[in-house]
Predict the structure.
Amino acid sequence: MRLLSSVRRSSAPREQRSLFGEILDWMLAPLLLLWPMSVALTWLVAQNIAARPYDRDLAQLARVISRQLALELADHPTDLPVPLPEPTAVLLRGDEVDKVYFQVMDGQGRLLAGDGEIPVPVDESLPVGEVVWRDAEVFSEPVRVAMLRPAAEAGGSSPIALVQVAETQGKRSRLATEIIKGVILPQFVILPVAVLLVWFALARGIAPLNELQQRIRRRESHDLSPIDELEAPEEVAPLVRSINDLLGRLDQSVGAQKHFLADAAHQLKTPLAGLRMQAELAQREIDAGGDAQTVRRSLAQIALSSQRAAHMVNQLLSMARAEDEEQSRRQLPFDLADIATETVQDFVPKALDKRIDLGYEGPAPGDPMPRLMGQPLLVREMVRNLVDNALQYTPAEGTVTVRVVPDPFGQVVALQVEDNGPGIPSAEREQVFQPFYRALGTDVDGSGLGLAIVKEIAERHGATVDIENAWSGGPVPPGERPGTVFTVRFTAAREG
């Protein structure tokens, strides 16, 4: 069941990516992530801003209480607790929102005045004459506490060791909330507007891509002219350039196919026309009661023309198979020596009919050979065309030799097909690989596609094809033929 479910998941269609959606996500995701961070930072800043004026008031009140009690203690040193003057007591009454508490202690830790519920700070190392703030609780209610250690008077010491003034935090929280509202509420309006503006900007920025798509879609199927790069955005110019390169290669391929089809139709026209003409002649002879010899000659010509047409069709099919991109991507191991020996065996009857000595030189089938990868069927077709070409151009009593020469270092394997025929002039050695090219001055019957197929298959396998004279002893003596050696070099596949 798990295997079946994994197969189903693997066969599910992939979801198409949206460039617009991806850019929008990468722009809005940070914005939506930064917005909560902005709210948190705004809250912290608002708390700090709201606390500053109230902290200053607490510090001022602590100093006032310190000065007033110092005067009262100077006038009434034995009256404890010391009552606050009425103006100072009015300041401590606070307002309707917050409560204010105070506490005055002497050096022995006695309460001189105020509320004993304010907790005494643990850290007694307070700077003298400076106000220090801290957070605490009074009656289980959070308060803000201002602490002051009064400085000693000139010529003596201060009877007050610590003054603490505490205030509940209602007004602070209210002010911080108002600041948050003033900052955050406009963001609830600005954020959707920003999202809409980003959406509009992206849609406006991608509009040239839609226009480019429409221009390409409106093209006719035969229009392979390049797209104007200046009409595309700068960021898409490399893509347009790649498409233009593809269109150029496609135009060349289509042109080559049209040229090939035109040549093929022209080449097939001759044997088919001869076939029809001979059939009409035979029909006339039969209707006119002609002799059987004339009819037999017509039938022989019909057989020859049909054989030529069949050979032409087979060559065309081989050419199409060699040009098949899909097939060339399927790589299989093959033994070149096996293919060469089998091909030689297949052509022995034809060689005997033409009285040609056809032989093979090289490793025996099954001997260790460098590892070659490719299409065995196409390689076999290539070897067959080379051997057939050699037998076609080699006269009677001639020799044709097929060799497989492995590199001793295991990097290259060479296939050689040598004959002692008329040879190929240097000026024509590149042209013989063109489809339907026939060397002048030869009476050999053929389609002109064999060597074109050889070249195409060799290129599909990353091999090279070279043509040389078989005679290597200097100038060809009178009466001798230079012969031809076709050498196809395959690169061995890397191990692992």
